[in-house]
Amino acid sequence: MSLLSIDRLETHYKAPDGVLRAVDDVTLTVESGETVGLVGESGCGKSTLGKTVMRLVDPTAGSIAFRGTDITRLKQNKLQDMRRHVQMIFQDPFASLNPRHTIGQILLAPLTVHGVGTKVERQQLVDAMIDRVGLPRDSLDRYPHEFSGGQRQRIGIARALILNPELVVCDEPVSALDLSIQAQILNLLVSMKKDLGLSYLFISHDLSVVRYFTDRVLVMYLGKIVESADNATLWSSPKHPYTRALMDAVPDPSRRRHVAPITGDLPSAQNIPTGCRFHTRCVLASDICRQQEPEFRSVGKTHHVACHHI
Amino acid sequence: MALPLLRVDNLSIRFPTTEPVSNLSFLVNEKETLAIVGESGSGKSLTALALMRLLPRSAKPSGQIVFAGQDLLKLEERRMRQLRGKDIGMIFQEPMTSLNPVLTIGRQITEVLQLHERLPAKAARSRAIELLDLVRIPDPQRRIDDYPHQLSGGMRQRVMIAIAVACRPRLLIADEPTTALDVTIQAQVLDLLDKLRRDLSMAVLLITHDLGVVAQWADNVVVMYAGRKVEEALPEPLFAHPLHPYTRGLLAASPRLKNNYHYKDGPLTEIPGSIVSAAGEKGCSFRPRCTVAHDSCANAVPDLFVPAANRLVACPYHASFAEEANVALVN
Amino acid sequence: MTSTELNDYAGHSGTRVRSPATEKHQPEPLNPQWNNVRAPDSRVKTSNALAAVPNKWRVLKALIHNPNAVCGLVFLALVILAALIAPLIYPGDPLAMVARPFLWPGQNPAYPLGTDSMGRDVLAGILHGARVSLFVGLVATALGLTFGVLVGATAGYFGGWIDDLLVRLIEIFQTMPSFVLLVVMVAIAQPTASTITLAIAIITWPTVARLARAEFRTIREKDFVMAARSLGYGHARIIFLEILPNALPPIIVTSSVMVAGAILMESALSFMGLGDPNVVSWGSMIGAGRELIRTAWYLTALPGIAIVFTVLSLNLIGDGLNDALNPRFTQER
């Protein structure tokens, strides 16, 4: 049984002029101990997918099951149990900590709310966690604004892990940080994963970070998954033209001053192109792409692609 | 042979309590791209503002900024206003906030043209359409009457570029032009900037934190740390053999697509700690984070050494890295 | 750089993961200024963040450095002092006739501010009037604030149909001319200090509710609220412990102006003779002196000055609080 299995999930938002199909028919699984990367450009629905998994946003259709238990339609107050097992790390370390609470309060509150242990035990857990993420104990009496971005992200990680979850949704956890800090945070996440046996759903737009950090990668375009493969396969033989374009777009010293890989902007999620949703920007686009939506089919043991031309 | 268009000499920017930029010198040659790379807090954006004389009032710049033979720091404000937008164009990081939301993009482009080139309204409008076409905005005749909110982030940045190059500036300062954009759009915008640089024969000062962008698009690179230049080189030698411990640390710390390094193979090399202001810091500002720091590093700000032609490095111990690099090359 | 070189380099500098715990402690003894906390990689945001989290002492400091706010605080303290000592200095009923009518201020040292047309002591009236004004101002604001914040927070936090319903309720109150409503309510009920207070609270809460709703709507979308929800916190905890402290600064600023408004309304009611007839208030004193304004102008001027200065000082405090609590806004202005 998969740790997390998402089946034909759809999350739509009401927009002033129509419906915004942020997540449109996504199926994926995360196995225990696995790190699954979710890559795509901003506006492709990857953050909405993360929030839907956390039930911070209500899905429109489909199902989310955690360890076989369907949590899609659970009322918010019935989610308590799931909350202990699934946690989230946010992108912006400046917005994700309440500016009016001390770090101690921020870390203690989840334990109090979930009634973990006695008062003394809770304090011990908080102390151990602050040590573990590499901040001095006196941080507990300080407020978030006294910390740098990297340190705040450590606090965000501590808060997400203090309930000892099994699955952590990481929504761009390093993209707001300076390069010299990114490595510190990624290393911390890796060592936490080893120590606590965590699984990650790692949402990022940065392909090089995903390349380093994940076991399996899903590429998302306009609310849909267009390619999925294990890490090594995807980088060695990307199949979908979008995946290839993404990889080509990553700046690379060996390709001095080469021409941009794809043209055009991401179409609006309110007005998704017919047929293959990538055809407006695709170099391979033909008539069939404009008319018929390609099915997501297997091209290898772990490798799936949604493209007519593969 | 490339001629210097902009020469910055010993630029320091002082605030009442701090000095976020100290003794910074560099050259921008005609028709070339100079990249200034550094993380937030390195002083790179303040440097850009100083070039445009747009620093906050509490800032006191000193040194020389010589653009086409005149010292910008000594120029009277009226002359400086003529220079801004005409001879020096600038684009900013946030395409969302740097356009006025209540004016059409056409109006914002023609405004610059009417101000600096005194074009009549009709001519300005047709120039604006040409410019939109130049920055590859599809269907410019129709788009010119759009408001900024009707455009995507990438489109807005193109409009910003159109405004910046409207009067054919000789220098374009691009402050993190693609940080807010997606990779595919980033590639398009950088490609566009480079094409404009060639077509309009302008120099580009590219300010960024992204080493990959620098490696791909720059002719010359200045690495800044805590307000000082720590290394300067052509991109190929810089990325092949970085000499300053900071540059070396940054390159080692960044995961890259091509090197097949995976978390199961081991952790990334970290630069410990975080950037510290050069203010109040005696000696080398990178010392607190440096893995090879010597006691002497605390005594004085290191001089700039010239380890090879077209290279500068602010670390007296760079020679040992050069040897390592040679060993690595031989192996 | 190829991967082999990268690994080479990694080997030289030591790939060992430096325990981040040491990263904080190690550099400190070398250089006390090197303080990881407040590292400048957050420099730009730190200044904003500092502004966003005014701790109590910083607010007080900012207030004390603002001469206008200090003037306001001093005068308000005098009014509070007057209210506190009134029953000690003048234990009798301030409505009692104690001397010859129309004593001008300074005419008789026993009655420094003179007496009115019925021989009542003006100073006693003003001191006791301060009690009524402050009581009505503070209690009406407290009631209006509590109810307004509750309604606004509920509407802003839950959204959806709850929001629609509560916004309609707020609009019903806001579409009625508030002073007319106040007069009607007081006229129907007994004009006592507590009914007047309640009536003022009823017409002022919608302002607070709108403000609180707007704040809650903005803040509930912030990541830290998302985090709180993902940690399974209950609604009450999120509303009162997570969002409310962040929504308070503009509400506090408004409340100081509300106190001033309530004092003015009470005075206006008393002036019109709709106040509590059994207590003396500044408004009723002005009302009583109104017809004699040509012959004994001090009877209207003295309580009038008391009102003007109290309201002004509350407004000055409000401005000072605004600068102290929302410095970012002030800087941007």
TrEMBL record, chain A:
CDD domains: ABC_NikE_OppD_transporters
Compartments (UniProt record): Cell inner membrane
Protein topology in the membrane: Peripheral membrane protein
Residue ranges the record marks as coiled coil: none
One of the record's GO molecular function terms: ATP binding
A Pfam family assignment: oligo_HPY
GO BP, one annotated term: transmembrane transport
Gene3D superfamilies on file: P-loop containing nucleotide triphosphate hydrolases (3.40.50.300)
Transmembrane region(s): none
Matches recorded under InterPro entries: AAA+_ATPase (IPR003593), ABC_transp_ATP-bind (IPR050319), ABC_transporter-like_ATP-bd (IPR003439), ABC_transporter-like_CS (IPR017871), Oligopep_ABC_C (IPR013563), P-loop_NTPase (IPR027417)
Predominant place of localization: membrane
Top-level division of the source organism's lineage: Bacteria
Key word Transit peptide present: no
Cellular component, GO annotation: plasma membrane
Sorted UniProt keywords: ATP-binding, Nucleotide-binding, Transport
Matching PROSITE patterns: ABC_TRANSPORTER_1 (PS00211), ABC_TRANSPORTER_2 (PS50893)
Annotated ABC transporter domain residues: 7-247
Family stated for the protein in its record: Belongs to the ABC transporter superfamily.
NCBIfam families named among the record's database cross-references: oligo_HPY
Name of the featured protein: Oligopeptide/dipeptide ABC transporter ATP-binding protein
TrEMBL record, chain B:
Molecular function GO terms recorded: ATP binding; ATP hydrolysis activity
Coiled coil location: none
Annotated localization: Cell inner membrane
The entry's keywords: ATP-binding, Cell membrane, Membrane, Nucleotide-binding, Transport
GO biological process: peptide transport; transmembrane transport
One Pfam family linked to the record: ABC_tran
Keyword ATP-binding: yes
Membrane topology: Peripheral membrane protein
Annotated SMART domains: AAA
GO cellular component, one term: plasma membrane
ABC transporter domain sequence ranges: 6-251
Family stated for the protein in its record: Belongs to the ABC transporter superfamily.
PANTHER family the record matches: DIPEPTIDE TRANSPORT ATP-BINDING PROTEIN DPPD, OLIGOPEPTIDE TRANSPORT ATP-BINDING PROTEIN APPD
Descriptive protein name: Oligopeptide/dipeptide ABC transporter ATP-binding protein
Source organism of the structure: Phyllobacterium myrsinacearum
UniProtKB/TrEMBL annotation, chain C:
InterPro entries: BP-dependent_transpt_permease, MetI-like, MetI-like_sf, OppC_N
GO biological process: one example: peptide transport
Region named Disordered: 1-39
Annotated protein name in UniProt: Peptide/nickel transport system permease protein
One GO CC annotation: plasma membrane
Annotated keywords: Cell membrane, Membrane, Peptide transport, Protein transport, Transmembrane, Transmembrane helix, Transport
Coiled coil: none
Membrane topology: Multi-pass membrane protein
Location in or out of the cell: Cell membrane
Pfam families per UniProt: BPD_transp_1 (PF00528), OppC_N (PF12911)
Annotated TM spans: 68-90, 132-158, 165-189, 195-212, 251-275, 296-317
Homology family: Belongs to the binding-protein-dependent transport system permease family.
Domain ABC transmembrane type-1: 130-318
